[in-house]
Specification:
Number of helices of chain B: 10
Strand content of chain A: under 5%
Oligomer: heterodimer
Shape of chain B: elongated
Number of domains of chain B: 1
Strand content of chain B: under 5%
Radius of gyration of chain B: 20 Å
Largest interface: A-B, 53 and 53 residues
Order of helices and strands of chain B: HHHHHHHHHH
Helix content of chain B: over 70%
Helix content of chain A: 55-70%
Structural class of chain B: mainly alpha
Number of strands of chain A: 0
CATH architecture of chain A: Orthogonal Bundle
CATH topology of chain A: MetI-like fold
Number of domains of chain A: 1
Amino acid sequence: MAAGGGALIIASAGSGLPSVGLVPRWLTTASHWTGRHGLLVSLREHVIYTVVAVLIAMIIAIPIGLVVGHTGKGSFAVAGFANAIRAVPAFGLMILLYVLVSPKIHFHGSIGWLVPRGAFASLVPVEAMLVVLAVPPILTNTYAGVRDTDPAVTDAARGMGMRPRQVVMRVELPIALPLMLAGIRSAVLQVIATATIAGFLPFLGGLGYQIFINGLPQINDPNVGYPAMLGAALVVAALAGVADLVLLGVERLIVSPGLARPTARTRLLRP
Amino acid sequence: MSHAWQYFTNNQSQILTWLRTTAWLAVVPLAVGLALSLPAGWVASRYRWSYPPIITVGGLLYTIPSIVLFLALPGIIGTKILDPLNVAVALTVYCVALLARVVADGLRAVDADILNAGSAMGYTGRQLLLSVQLPLAIPVIGAGLRVAAVSNVSLIAVASTLGVSQLGSLFTIGNTTGDTAPIWVGLVMFVLLALVLDGLILAGVRLMTPWRRAVGR
């Protein structure tokens, strides 16, 4: 078989789809990035969906994780809840929320540049689904980070006269930070990957729009079909890679240098 | 819920066909992935220089969003876009990415004293690996396998957005008809499938590690 692009074109012929070799050209065509349904708009929407979901998930998960880790009460419920959530397919949850909740939302206006006109009723189920997805990794890692704090260290803090709140905020939180950030990282990666299915619902975009709405119905078209779908999918992968690197950088900046970064265990906690 | 039950009985044969496809998609990649991870993990645990590259490649593969793999595989291996094989191969990739590290860590975590005792008893290198080191790593490998199984099952649902016909199709049907019954049926079936797989792996680990029960752990 011919090497490089030749091999790819032969392989693609077997699938009856336009060649994978067309993807680089599709991605480097300026007109595919600009315009109302261009990649830049989709990329911005994708980032907004992700950031909103992860922020809400952090607001929910971090306080609960800190309290459960500190008191040790409810740890069984936390682990059980996180595992149960992982078994629920995100796509099914999103469609269920869309069918149940969206008809009851009668707000059709826009909210600044964040939510376009008419999109709110579709956005609520998507964000709810993404939050449900993002809570377990952040929650379990925060909880595990606090729980695994050396008891000698918290005893010392108490001996110095710290109140329980101070022990949590000034001792356990900084020590749990590396593990917490690992949880946030895995939540971000999962949310970026899953936010592609937002494009499935009306009025919504994100990079999934390019895949499901633009691409899938005309998959055999060499311009807007398969090469465009795969191109947009590669942008999702690139976004995930960049987000991972940025969060690793944040971790370097805010984690106390005195704490060695745990790696082996944090990976396992990823669903 | 009675509405959902009625939907299930009315469409039983179709749903059971989908269940078979979905169960196949959940189990086969797991088995193939484990079979590939065992040698890869062993190499990573045995030869120190090979550990970082194997683990890094696994970590990178794991960050690829599933939809990217589902879409790219037809172009790479020449399957049709709706071929369930794309999903099976993609899930196998995720399994290996996750399990190679788990196997390597599990094998490395076995106490050196135990291995020394084994060689003092006359075990050859291969016997030591197969009848001492590997069995002792089973609980760790089993835990990784459970994570892989549950995450695979929920990834299968995503594949139905591209039209691959399986239990996830119940969600697309619910989306187009606005009926919650198929969606509930789909959610229940997916969760049950994940629970059953999880339970089977747990039971397998218990069966293969009788010494852990003997000391009452």
